[in-house]
Design a protein that fits this description.
By secondary structure, the protein is mostly helical. It has 2 helices and no strands. It has helices at 2-27, 32-70. The protein is rod-shaped and about 60 Å long.
């Protein structure tokens, strides 16, 4: 179950990062430096979310295989 908790934590952290960027964009005047940093942070959050989802899918598939072996 540690895998599921880790994947869930990764997805949650990515969501929080996206929320921080959205908050900054909504309240801070645009500057090139800020836009670049925010774009990089959003891209990292997206990659982390995709990675977390892939871990969850893999764990689900592995569990299905284990169940099939014992069935």
């Amino acid at each position: 179950m540690e895998i599921l908790a880790s994947a869930s934590s990764t997805i949650e952290a990515a969501g929080q990062a996206a929320a921080r960027v959205a908050e900054r964009v909504a309240h801070v005047p645009s500057a090139l430096k800020t836009i670049v940093r925010d774009t990089v942070e959003l891209s990292s959050a997206e990659a982390a979310t995709r990675a977390g989802a892939a871990v969850l899918r893999t764990a689900r598939d592995m569990l299905g295989t284990i169940v099939d072996l014992f069935a």
